[in-house]
Amino acid sequence: MDLSDRDRRNLYYFLKGDSENQGDRLRAYDYFSEHCRPVFRPMMELMQERLAPRSGIGPIEKDKIKQAVERIQSCSS
Fold first, then answer.
1. From the CB of residue 4, how many other CB atoms can be counted at a distance below 10 Å?
2. What is d(CA 59, CA 30) in angstroms, rounded to the nearest whole number?
3. Among 59, 10, 4, which residue's Cα sits nearest to residue 34?
4. What is the pLDDT along the chain (77 residues), one digit of tens a residue?
5. Would you say 50 and 62 are in contact if contact means Cβ atoms under 8 Å apart?
6. Contact at 8 Å (CB) between 25 and 17?
């Protein structure tokens, strides 16, 4: 798999973020919080949807999403 440019990596981690596998989702949150500029809007929207009360996401994952969203919003790199 060729992940040589940022667009390809963003797409790859977005697909991980939309995965059924919680470990993949957590890795995606970490990736986007570390590579936060420019903001990858589809992932930001997905994370905000998952913070909704009826999303079915557990408390550990919700905390991870909250941390990622806060870091992305305050990112200056």
1. 8
2. 17
3. 10
4. 899 999 999 999 999 999 999 999 999 999 999 999 999 999 999 999 999 988 789 999 999 999 999 999 998 65
5. yes
6. yes
Break the chain into its structural domains and give their ranges: 6-73
Query: How large is the greatest C-alpha to C-alpha distance in the chain, in angstroms?
Result: 37
Neighbour count for residue 25 (Cβ, 10 Å):
22
- Secondary structure of residue 62 in the 3-state scheme: helix
DSSP state of 56: -
For residue 66, how far is the Cα from the chain centroid? 10
How far apart are alpha carbons 3 and 73 in whole angstroms?
25
Question: Is 9 buried (19+), middle (13-18) or exposed (0-12) by CB count in 10 A?
Answer: middle
